[in-house]
Every structure is written in C-alpha cells, then in structure tokens.
Amino acid sequence: MDAEGIASSIEGKLDQYLPPPPISQCSIFKVPNMLRRDNERAFTPEVVSIGPFHRNNMQLREMENNKLQYLECLLNRTGTPKLKSLVEAIDRIEQDCGDCYAEVVDLRRDKFIEMMVIDGCLILEFLYRYQEKRCVDDPVFNTSWMPRKIVADLLLLENQLPWCVLVCLFNLITTNDSTTTEYQNSLLNDLVAIPFSMEYRIFYYDEHRRNRLGTQKHLLDYFRNSIVGSPPIKRPESPPASSVHPNWIPIKSVMELLDLGVGFFPVPDGGNFLDVKFEDGKMKIPAIFIEENTECLFRNLIAFEHCDPSKGYEITSYASLLNWLIKSPEDALHLKKKDILQIIRSSNEDKASFLKLLYNNDTSFHGFLYSDLCEDVNKIYSSNWAVWRARLKREYFNEPKELANFLYGVVLSAYLSLIQTVFAILSYKASIKNA
C-alpha cells in the first residue's frame, strides 16, 4: 500500500475543498432527494433561471436576452442611478449574498456580482410591468401564460435571489431626499405582493399583514411569512413527544370520519387557510384553492421548512393533515361538495389528486401544528357507540337499498312480534275462561 501517495492525494483534495457557508446563514438550498422524488418538475423553473443553481439550464437560455431588455428598461425609468452604481452597491454586499447559498457557487466573483445585478433588475422590472400591465413590444406580457409561469418560477426554492439584493437595487432606483428606508421597504413589499395576490388565492396582503412581515430572506420566504404570520395561528403550547412524528397521531380520512359522525364545514373567506379547527364534532376548514401552480408552491414551501432550521413546520403540518384526510377520490369529492376544496382555472378533478401525496415522507419533525386537533378527533374512537355505528354503516348500509331493506326487516319483525304477543294474550285469556 502506498500510504504516502494516498495521503498526498487526500491533501490535494483538501487544498481544493471549499467549505460551504454556515447553515445558520443559508437561506437558499438545493431540494433534498427525499422531497423531490415525488415530483421532480415541481422544483425546476420552466421559463426563467434566477441565481446560480439553474444558470446553465439550456432550456432557459431564451429568457437571457429578455433579462438584458428588462435591465435597460429599469435603468431608463428614472435615468438614475447609473449601472456602475448598481454594480458597486452589490459588490459591497457580495459576501453576504454568497453566504445565502447552501451550495458552493462555482462562479468568479465578478460573474457572481453580474448575475446578482442582472437577475435582481429582471425581478424588479417584471414586478413593475405586472403592476402596470404594460405589453408593448414585450414578449412576456404579450402572452397570457408567461407572466403566470414566471411568478411560479420566482417561488421555487432553488430559484431564489437574496432579499438584500432586491432591497439594495430598489433603494437605489427609487431613492430621493424625501424618502425613508421604512417607506421604501413598504413600497417594495407592496410591489412584490401584486403578482402573488393575483396568482394565488391563499396569499392575503393588506396594511396589517405588511407591518407584520418583518425581515424576508427571499421571495419564497416573503410569501411564506405572509400566510403563516398573519393572522396568527393557535399553536400547541408544548407538543407531546408523540407529535414529533406526524405518523404517530394519524386521523381517519374524510369518509371514515363521516361514518363516525364528524361533519365538515367551510370557513368564511378572510381567515388564515392554516386555521383548521375541530369543535363539537365539526371540522372547520378554510377553503383549499387548487390552481395551476398550487402543487409547485406547496412542495417548495415544504422543502424550505425542511432545509432552513430557523423555520417552523406550519406548511408541512398542513400537508400532513391533508394527506390523512384525503385518501381517495371520494374524500376529495365530499370536500368539493362542501366548498372546502375549490378547483380554479380547471375543471379537471385530477388537479386535486396531489393533495393526498403532498407530504407522505417518513420524516420526523418537531412542532406539528395540529397535534391538539388530532388528539381531539382521535377521542371519537374511544366511543364504543361511534365505532359500532361506523362498522354497521360500512358493513351493512353502504347502499340506500340496504338501509331500506334493513328498516323493512325491523318493521316487519316488530309487526310479527306484536301479532304474536296479541295472540298469546288472547290464548291466555281464553284458557282462563275455560278453566
């Protein structure tokens, strides 16, 4: 064995090794295989590449010329600042931007800064054009589908740009002597909210929510903060050990719970879609809107929660709950009849089929949002009457005809028993008279 040669080879690899940034600083991740195996396409951009992870995807090269067009238009909006000023500003935060990526970015420093400037300006100009609905000589907004696809691409975990890049560029473009940093931040938040609120029904945004957003890490984090943070959700104060793994406290499916006497009711619009409640045998669920890009959005939010240790598992908890409730087309159909499940922009019932597969990984996580709800629902199973009624209905009364036959048999049996009793009484009286 050539120990010296092997050691020399390892030392050479160590010399080339570039350690990734500390995980506490990272916010943009490659999606783990365990989460992407159910739907690889949900994590891959279809129109535009943002940042380094999909930079070399040849299928997205067509959008590169549009990036330069959008950059030029953004600079022409005010005439200031000059492109050099944007580059110098990003250069000052280059290290912070690089630390946001959990993978080592294989780009020279100047190329990385160039990418941050071009991609950041593309996003800002796209947001402006979405607000203005300006379509003149614009290959993006002259189509009906491309703006929607770009919005979806901007919410992919692997396709994120550090929020500080957007803030830096936006402040340079909009700044004047009379504006404050707080005011500029609110303007940027408002600008970002426009396409999200138009393309996704679950996104709620108003002045109250804007003030609660806090600091974002990127656009996906901004979207998540808006739906998780406001209005606040009641969380378990101290989740029991059994709630660490969601599969340890499963509840029955919709149809099984119906057999046990549980009712399902929609919640009026305006609340947080995560705010599912169980009270007095009634499960109250805010509307679940199934749109063209809903699956991609949810899968990326779930992936973000599993990659970023600073995040809770609110969206993952919601997906686990849906995975238990929706096991069959009949479960989804009942929720649809109750206006809980609403399919938008499509009449295809299969659009809702992904809900039962949205999160079915054998993966532990702390802070399950619905541990108290599941505990209350599971108490129903302790009722012998509820279990007996469900079994009776499942085994004997699946069809209305079976129930009718059963009721007919009960009535007939009672009638015959009554006649038999009457004849017995008459016979007894007759025997007394003859005695």
UniProtKB/TrEMBL annotation:
The keyword Transmembrane applies. InterPro entries: DUF247_pln. Pfam families: DUF247. This is UPF0481 protein At3g47200-like. The chain crosses the membrane at residues 406-428. It comes from Juglans regia (English walnut). Keywords: Membrane, Transmembrane, Transmembrane helix. The gene is LOC108994304. PANTHER family: BNAC04G53230D PROTEIN, PTHR31170:SF17.
